[in-house]
Structure formats: C-alpha cells, structure tokens
Amino acid sequence: MKELLEKTIPGVEFDSSDRDPPPRCHPGTRLAILKRCLSFILFCDGQKKMRWVVGAAGVGKSAVMQSVAEFPELPVSCHPSVFFSINGRNDGTKAIITISYQLAVKSKSYRQLIKREITLDPSLLRLSMAKQFLKLIIVSFIHNSELNSANHVLIIIDGLDECNDSCTQLELLRLISDLCIKHPSSPLEEIPVNSSEARADAERFLRTELTKIKEASKDPVDPRWPEEQDFWELTNASGGLFAYAHMAIRYIGDSTVRSPASQLSDVLNVIDNHPITNGPREEHPMALPDALYLQSSV
Questions:
Q1: In 10 A of CB 255, how many CB atoms?
Q2: Could you give the CA distance from residue 97 to residue 124 in angstroms, rounded to a whole number?
Q3: Would you state the pLDDT for residue 187?
C-alpha cells in the first residue's frame, strides 16, 4: 500500500486538508440537482452506471460534487474522489492509481486483489494509464463479480480540464468515454448558467451573505443596506453563475479595504459599465467575473 500511495496525487480527496475549505453548495441551494444526483446513486442499476455533470465554468459543478461526496447518508460502501486543481493537484497521469488506492483503503477484498497483482507484476504501477485502467479498474473491480455484488461504489472525478497536460486530459477522457460506450444510457446532468433554479439559488446565497457582512461589519452600516434596487441589480448580474456571486461577496466583505457599502458601490459600477451585463450570459459566462477581478486587482 505504501508503494501505491507514493504514486497517487496528494490532496485530491474530497475530505483532504489541502482543499479545506472546499467549494460546497450554500445551504438551501442546488437542492433539485443534488436530489437528482443522489437519487441516481441510490437507484442506479447495472446499465446506468455513469452520470456526467456539465456546465459552464463557474456555474458550481465542483460545489455540487463536493456536496454529493459529503452527503452523510450516501448509500455506498466507499466513494473515492479526484478533485483536480491547478494548485499542484493536476497530475492526470496518477489519476487511475489514486482512485485504485482509495478503493483499496476501503475495500479489503480489492486491497488483497491489488496486492496480488502488484506482487505478480511490480511494473504495473509504471504502465500506461490505459493499461492501469484496464488492470486496476475494469478487470479488478468492474468485472469482478465478487466485488460488484458486495459493494456499491461511487467514483467522483472533478475538474478534468485542470489537468496539467492536454494529452493526459484527452487520454483520461478517452478511457472514460470508452467505458461509457460499453455502459450506455449514462444520464447527463447539465447545470444551466441562467436557469430559474440557478438564479433563485444565487439570490438566496447573496441575500444570506450580505446579511452576514452587515452584521459582522465594524463600520456603521445603514440598517436598510443593501437597498433592494442595488440587491436586485447585483442578483440579476450574477444570474445563476455562482463564481460571480462568490467573487462579489468576497470583495464586498473584505474588511481590510473599505466599508461594505463602498465595496458594493464598486461592484455595481462594474456592472453598470460592462457591456455584457444585459447580453446572453451563456455565450460569455465569465466576462463579468473577469471584469470584477480586474477591478479588485486595481
């Protein structure tokens, strides 16, 4: 196991201290998509084994996956996870071994099987990803009737676009897509940028966080702050894009700069002066967050 551990990506587990605090769904938000994902896990059968969660950058896919992984009554025996990040957790060549190690930690039968495989062929840990995927995941786990009948396992892979090498990223996609072809009818879960559900969730998040900022502020804040007109301008600009809502809240709540009212005024100025604000959010989902980032960097 130690030799296997040395070949893994440190810190990609959903509960790793390297990711603390991880992105997760704000309480009371994303309830519908979380319910659909959890229902799929609970009721998935031998045919529908995969679920793809897709959406524009910043819409909250990682937060949804984190919240699924943290669900206290998850109906699985183990749930290995790989949350890729450009912050040093992006070596895709180690993804298969990372998943294998996490499975081995939780499953005694799988651990014994993997130990035998590595003892018989020590070069297994140096083989290509395709060979490792075949030996460690397909043959040793998916096609192993003993393990399949005894365990209900969830594997979460998030942030594949943050792999440090495009060729590795494509290879992982090929391996997963080939598996999808062999196990058809994989449900597709799309998180739209500007759906009514996403907008309502962003509104709930913004209202809660602005209230927290007002209560925690050391500067005097008008009890009516923020004005409803200002709140709705911020909410409408955020749409259902949580990346923007989070960035705005961090900026407004930064007590090391100025008062929350002044910071909110800055954000509203960015919104008023940005040409994309009233345009199709789906075409340029990160345009407004980028503009706010430039403002906060000045």
A1: 13
A2: 10
A3: 65
Distance CA 227, CA 160 (A): 40
Query: What is the predicted pLDDT for the residue at 214?
Result: 92
Q: What is the CA radius of gyration of the chain?
A: 22
Spatial distance between the Cα atoms of 113 and 107, rounded to a whole number of angstroms? 10
- Name the residue among 131, 129, 134, 157 with its Cα closest to residue 144: 134
Question: What is the rounded CA–CA span in Å between residue 258 and residue 122?
Answer: 59
Residue 16: what residue type? Answer: S
CA–CA gap between residue 206 and residue 200 (Å, rounded): 10
Q: What's the rounded Cα separation, in Å, for the pair 159 and 283?
A: 21
Q: Are 285 and 247 in contact (CB under 8 A)?
A: no
Beta bridge partners of 267: none
- Summarize pLDDT for 174-228 with one digit per residue, the tens: 888 787 677 655 566 777 777 888 889 999 999 999 999 999 888 788 888 999 9
Burial class (CB in 10 A: 0-12, 13-18, 19+), 108: exposed
Range list of β-strands (E), the chain:
52-55, 81-83, 156-158, 188-191
CB of 267 closer than 8 Å to CB of 249:
no
Helix, strand or coil, per DSSP, at residue 157? strand
The amino acid at 205: F
> What value does the mean pLDDT take over residues 147-156?
72
Q: At what angle do helices 228-238 and 242-252 cross, to 10 degrees?
A: 140
- pLDDT of amino acid 296: 57
**In the structure encoding, which two tokens stand for residue 187, read together?**
């449900």
